[in-house]
Amino acid sequence: MLSSAVSSGVVNRVVTSIPSPEVSYIDLGPLRIHFYALCIILGIVVATLITNRRLTRRGAEPWVVVDIALLAVPLAIVGARVYHVVTHWGFYFGAGSNPWNPFEPGSVWAIWEGGIAIFGALLGGAVGAWLGCRWTGIRFGSFADALAPGILLAQAIGRFGNWFNQELYGWPTDLPWGLEIDPDNAAFPPGLPDDTLFHPTFLYEVVWNVLGVVVLLALGRKRVFQWGRLFAVYLIWYGAGRVVWETIRIDPSEIILGLRTNVWGAIAAIAVGIAVLVVQTRHTGDVPSPYVPGRRRADADALQSQDTPEDFVDVSDPAASEADTTAVATSTAAAR
């Protein structure tokens, strides 16, 4: 598609561009379905499927991940929304706002309009996953490692929701992949020509995340990336990308010491990832089992047809049990 040149000098030539969708929802009778929500739901489903396969291959009960998700997903959504509202306080509680009316635009409840933050989702989801792991007997670090590629792919899928909502784009650009934004969009910067193109930061993150999934899957085949270390790599990879994308986004954000709050969130993710890698150097062997001592399945269905014998370790060995207990304490401490 062709866009005309932007007379302000931001774009001085005719370039190809990425169009934004004309609609962001569909109406089915009285029910309005937002594509943003569908992207989030699809991401959750994909992450669950990937995590289930990875966790069962390590000896966990098939679909135990669903039991963990029953706590992790709702708390992740709550954490994501709370984080976004807190870091955009002026938007929801500024002059003329009506934050508590769920039927008004700009309400704190109007999550379908967008506005969930991954760093809040990680915090809330970590609490829910830890509780779910306690409930099911799954080792928190083993669950986190199984989750790492899936959650990164889910984030890539979820970013298309921002595309449908025409939100979270970057600076004006004259690059061939500039993103078209409707000039009547509430977030369109005032004073710019209607045909100004913007950096498609959603697409940058999609590409970065998909590449990260490939890296995580490759590293996950190496025995060294156990004990929560693969999830640590995920935190470092995702945090590094977000530092870059956040610096070119132009949507409003609270600024702390000259940096956007999400930049600080990304830096924190990198720091936590590095800390986990350092702390977990104390573990040199394989994880004995995805279950904590005393919680492993003992029924006839424990060994599933899709699993291989090398995925299982005899946890009746006292030395293995002692290592297992130490690992649980370390993984839990690293997650706090």
Automatic annotation (TrEMBL):
Keyword annotations: Cell membrane, Membrane, Transferase, Transmembrane, Transmembrane helix
Membrane topology: Multi-pass membrane protein
Biased amino acid composition, Low complexity: 319-336
InterPro entries the UniProt entry points to: Lgt
Record's keyword annotation contains Transferase: yes
Stretches for region Disordered: 289-336
Predominant localisation class: membrane
Pathway in which the depicted protein is active: Protein modification; lipoprotein biosynthesis (diacylglyceryl transfer)
GO MF terms held by the record: phosphatidylglycerol-prolipoprotein diacylglyceryl transferase activity
Residues holding a 1,2-diacyl-sn-glycero-3-phospho-(1'-sn-glycerol): 159
PROSITE patterns: LGT
Subcellular location: Cell membrane
Its biological purpose: Catalyzes the transfer of the diacylglyceryl group from phosphatidylglycerol to the sulfhydryl group of the N-terminal cysteine of a prolipoprotein, the first step in the formation of mature lipoproteins.
Protein family membership: Belongs to the Lgt family.
Cross-referenced PANTHER family: PHOSPHATIDYLGLYCEROL--PROLIPOPROTEIN DIACYLGLYCERYL TRANSFERASE, PROLIPOPROTEIN DIACYLGLYCERYL TRANSFERASE
Protein name: Phosphatidylglycerol--prolipoprotein diacylglyceryl transferase
Organism: Microbacterium betulae
